[in-house]
Amino acid sequence: MQEKHTMPAPARHYFWNDPDKRALVFQIIVTVAILGLAFVVVENTLSNLEKRGITTGFDFLSQESGFGIIQSLVEYDETHSFGKTFIVGLLNTILVSVLGIILATVVGFLVGVGRLSNNWLVARVCGAYVEIFRNIPLLLQILFWYFAVLRTLPSPRQSLDLYDTFFLNIRGLYIPAPIFQEGAIWIGVALLLAIASVWVIKRWAEQRQLASGKTFPVFYTAAVIVIGLPLLAWFMTGQPVHWEVPALKGFNFRGGYAVIPELCALLIALTLYTASYIAENVRSGIEAVNKGQTEAAFALGLPKSRTMQLVIIPQAMRVIIPPLASQYMNLIKNSSLATAVGYPDLVAVFAGTTLNQTGQAVEIILITMSVYLLMSLLVSLLMNMFNKKMALAER
Amino acid sequence: MMTSVNNAEMAGSDSAMIELRKLNKWYGDFHVLRDIDLTVRKGERIVICGPSGSGKSTMIRCINRLEEHQQGDIIINGREMTNDLKDIEQVRMEVGMVFQHFNLFPHLTVLENCTLAPIWVRKQPRKEAEAIAMQYLERVRIPDQADKYPGQLSGGQQQRVAIARSLCMNPQVMLFDEPTSALDPEMIKEVLDVMVELANEGMTMLCVTHEMGFAKTVADRVIFMDEGQIVEENEPESFFNNPQSERTKLFLSQILQH
Lengths: 395, 258
Prior knowledge:
The complex is a heterodimer.
Chain A: H1 19-51, H2 82-115, H3 120-134, H4 138-149, E1 160-162, E2 166-169, E3 172-175, E4 177-180, H5 185-212, H6 218-236, E5 241-244, E6 247-249, E7 252-254, E8 257-259, H7 261-288, H8 291-299, H9 304-334, H10 346-358, H11 361-390
Antiparallel strand pairs in A: 1-2, 2-3, 3-8, 4-5, 6-7
Chain B: H1 7-10, E1 16-27, E2 30-41, E3 45-49, H2 56-63, E4 71-76, E5 79-80, H3 85-94, E6 95-98, H4 110-120, H5 126-139, H6 155-167, E7 173-177, H7 185-200, E8 204-208, H8 212-218, E9 221-226, E10 229-234, H9 236-241, H10 246-256
Parallel strand pairs in B: 3-8, 3-9, 6-7, 7-8
Antiparallel strand pairs in B: 1-2, 1-4, 4-5, 9-10
Helix pairs in contact in B: 4-5, 4-6, 5-6, 6-7
């Protein structure tokens, strides 16, 4: 007689065999553990601070700082508060980060595309660039630009100059500054007007393409308008903008804008270092696009440049953007190496000098870390939005 | 009984759409095309078959310069294929191509896939290009998918979009490079149906395929290639019932067995 297969009698149902309940239990345990640990850390810190007689709090931010900073985007001297010091440092960090991100993106894209060039020399030069700058520690590169390049520049009297307008010497780069006089506002108005009309022309050109198939050289027209209109306004209002050219007065240059060598060194190093990584992202993004895409575009008669613009780059972007976001964040965080050459960034003036003078280590480190965290999250947020826009619609 | 027809002689040179003369191509040391001579008349439908690696795809990819040949001449509609970029673009405008893996542009909708080249290459107004694209999408029976993205369609639908995309450029010749090889069996028919329709409308077609049923119904000539050479060419009836060379017999026995 054949044995009948029956299900074994149902065992008792234990709640720990239910994946949902099990997950809930683990989450409760982890949450309690983390909260407990945080409590111990805070408790321990507070009691240690109390033992050493260190007062906690953020009152120090309104105290007078008593030290100067070599570069400040806002009005600042040693009579201002530590709070103002924080602002100055933050702005300096943002300045070098924003400039670095823009420049690194431009250089990175050029080198990345260049590495894929059919031109043997261009491809090799770009390849060599990437391998050199990617494989040398960033700190070393910053020190190189500062000490080996900029510190060996001549003194102000023997400045290198370009048409007696731009001067480069050991104290920095001196460039002319615009002086706005009465009527200069019209140039700004003209610029806004130019941008508005370019927008109108762009719309009109699109409509015309829709209706007749004729294309219009929007880019060149836009270039002429955007440059031409403000220039016209400048002449018509009696040339109200003058350039203040830096000039040697005594031992140093006066007038114009001075870009300190610390900023130059940091900016060059951050740009070249990050650009080498971005170049690799761009290259891998372009290479990730299936070769069939190029073939299909070619087979339809699209020229190489249009294929790149309409088919390859839009698809490569979705591969490029996520690692691009991390490179931007890396650049922001790496800018804290400014301390090495004395560029007054947030870490140098706030987590450095301010901390030394006030001793409020916990508060200052906490603030500084939060600032970097916030900046990174902001970049992340923006790049995610951009990425979402570029993402492909799937099934 | 010799039924093979020398088509090169039969075709008047004025009605020749594609002429390949003594075409040779190497990949490094590998001689992939050997002395290919082929004349395709306007309106002719040609099926090319042969074992993998025999140079079928390479040959038709030479016709629109996706591959560069090293020796011999390619003349398309009276225009000789040279290194001149403008010549190449001109030829590509007149020669449509459908790929094994569809190669639709995934970042563009079905409609945008179809209008991209007409707008940017033929400089058609967008509205007109869209109207033409909708006509072709109707002909391949997927007008309702126009606003979807390729990733949202089945393989058969994608291949039909690819055919419509090529037709939007109003080509003189269509090249098909194993158009059904990447499809599930039940989707092959919907693509073949479209291709048969196209053939019946008089389109000049070169089709690399192993769909022997398709070859029997629409082909004017079947070409068998092996090791970079054209081994045999004949009209389908004779080709399948009375193959001349041993190599062709072996190939046919292998693919028709099951």
